[in-house]
Amino acid sequence: EIAELIRLNLEKEGFRPDVVHSGEEAVESVQSRKPDLILLDLMLPGIDGLEVCRRIKWEPATRETPIIMVTARGEESDIVAGLEMGADDYITKPFSPRVLAARIRNVLRRSGDAKEADAKQEHLDRGRIRINVDRHEVVVD
After folding, report:
1. Are strands 123-126 and 67-71 parallel, antiparallel or unpaired?
2. What CATH number is given to the structural domain containing 23?
3. What domain range is 66 assigned to?
4. Which of 16, 92, 112, 138 could tie 74 with a disulfide, CB 3.0–4.6 Å?
5. For residue 39, what are the β-bridge partners?
6. pTM summary value
7. Using one digit for the tens of pLDDT, what is the confidence trace for 17-39?
């Protein structure tokens, strides 16, 4: 099975992947495990990958979780639909395991940079108003 081959290759690259086999399982797994990244096939039994993506991106607790669509559907309309639904990247089968690992690292790096940037921004300056988010303070000059 392709999912198992991907899992084995990602383990060799140092990742710790979990595999689920349906859209319903994917939604439940994301909500309970809070993964760092999701590899999502469009063609899942039950809830399809686009709907899974929509549900994940709709929930405040999971909306920032990066998603890479990994699918055999390579038509332009499929790629556009996946990216517009919120996927951070889209890769079509067949692909090299090394390319997939590189794309995963890239998406994780970008999402980590965004999280770090948010964490480092302790205050907001808006004209004469300064808001310190960490200390819950507002200063007006």
Report:
1. unpaired
2. 3.40.50.2300
3. 2-140
4. 92
5. 68
6. 0.77
7. 999 999 999 999 999 999 999 99
